[in-house]
Amino acid sequence: MLHKAQSLFGYLPIEVQRKISEGLSVPLAEVYGVVTFYSQFTLVPKGKYQMGVCLGTACYVKGAQDIIDEIKRQTGVAVEGTTPDGKYSLTATRCIGACGLAPVMDVNGEVYGRLKASDVKDILAQYQ
Fold it and tell me: Which GO terms label this protein's molecular function in UniProt (predicted)?
């Protein structure tokens, strides 16, 4: 039910959690506990363009932090945050299984690999 609600609303605000709690006759604290325990659920709206930068070992060693820093510089988005205009959100992810392409990022499921900080500008240009 939480997955369905998140797919409908894009996130799980407390009002939605309350309705789920009532509908399932489960304490709100239990619903909230599940939502905050699992990383696939979010309490805040995500941006139109959801960016994830892998910080797994291979990506980190090959410069993933530089990619994150450049995204932050160009968009103003904080890690685990969303820009005020709702355009971009940024997540620091763990291994996405593309270690041979390290460092990698994805935007709405589109994976970009073997990145340098200088590549970020061209990638973001595709999502203007």
Answer: 2 iron, 2 sulfur cluster binding; hydrogen dehydrogenase (NADP+) activity; metal ion binding
